[in-house]
Amino acid sequence: MIAFTDNEGVVSFPVGEGRDYYVRAETSFALYPANPGTYAALMTNAQDGEQYFYEFSFAGSLTPLSVSVVDPPVDPEDDYRVGITYTIPKYYISGRITWDDISSLGTYPKFYLEVLVPGNLNLLLTDADNVIFYQTMQICEAIQYNPHSTQGQLMFDIPAAQDWYLFLDNSHHHGNAQAIEGIALYYQYGSGNQEDLAPEIIKTFPNTPNPFSKSTTLHYYLNKKQPVEIKIYNLKGQHVKTLFDEPSSAGYQSLAWDGLSNAGSKLSSGVYIARMKTSGETVTQKMLLIR
């Protein structure tokens, strides 16, 4: 039997009664047991209905990312700004069967298992000099660093005449892919305009994914903290779900909807309207649910 570990380094499989089992684990940086081609005893005479647990550590490890957070540079001009908000709602276990007989000419298919729990990534904002150290040595200084985050947001005033780099880094995982939902926006201030980037009370962005079958995420921006009401309606104008109804923080926000009604039942395929309302503005957007 071959299986691949999840984000926590855990894997499980069924065992047969009265059998003995041995284990071998392989990564790109270490082996267990350390001698190639050898196996460690996992259990003997497995019993019906029992659960068995086995834990071990590799002698080697992935190169850890080492980041020092420094103060952002002074930006005297209101010229450019970048904003990002993201969530990692799930991830995919990935691996390849060593002896699969489907591949040919050295090209192997990818095998993925969807895991419907939040994944995590590192958010990293740094300058051109530190990118070299980050890419070659996994060491750098960063203006902002969110390690192992399931969600986050960033707003950065960009100083002129310099290059800046923003990474969503997955180097602390050994192969598992993280599913990212979010938006990244690049702004230019108007000439002589000292107003906030988003003069609107609320600014919405397309929900992702759309169409959707299991879940979709709504994205919006607020210029200040204020009460927000988000309700879902069908095309008959019937209220089917209250998604949010409380004060919301300023900045970029995201909110997931799983296609369920207020009663917790699955809604049928069709077009639904999300209505976002504040004390001074109401906006709507369409979403297509496909079962």
Protein model, in words:
- The chain is mainly beta.
- Helices cover about 5% and strands about 45% of the residues.
- The protein contains 1 helix and 20 strands.
- Strands 6, 7, 11 and 13 form a 4-stranded antiparallel β-sheet that branches. Strands 17-16-19-20 form a 4-stranded antiparallel β-sheet, with no helix packed on it. A 3-stranded antiparallel β-sheet has the order 10-8-12.
- A hairpin with a 4-residue loop joins strand 16 (about 225-235) and strand 17.
- The chain is flat.
Major beta-sheet overview: 4 strands, antiparallel
Cα shape: flat
N-to-C series of helices and strands? EEEEEEEEHEEEEEEEEEEEE
Q: What is the terminal-to-terminal distance?
A: 34 Å
Number of strands: 20
**Mean model confidence by pLDDT:** 85
User: How helical, in percent, are the residues?
Assistant: under 10%
Supply Rg.
Answer: 24 Å
Number of helices: 1
- Poorly predicted segments: 191-199
Proportion of residues in extended strands: over 45%
- Structural class comes to mainly beta
Furnish the topology, listing elements before pairings.
Layout: E1 21-23, E2 25-26, E3 31-32, E4 40-43, E5 66-69, E6 80-95, E7 111-115, E8 121-127, H1 128-137, E9 139-142, E10 144-149, E11 151-158, E12 164-169, E13 177-188, E14 202-208, E15 216-222, E16 226-234, E17 239-248, E18 251-257, E19 270-277, E20 282-289
Parallel strand pairs: 5-9
Antiparallel strand pairs: 1-4, 2-3, 6-7, 6-11, 6-13, 8-10, 8-12, 14-15, 15-18, 16-17, 16-19, 19-20
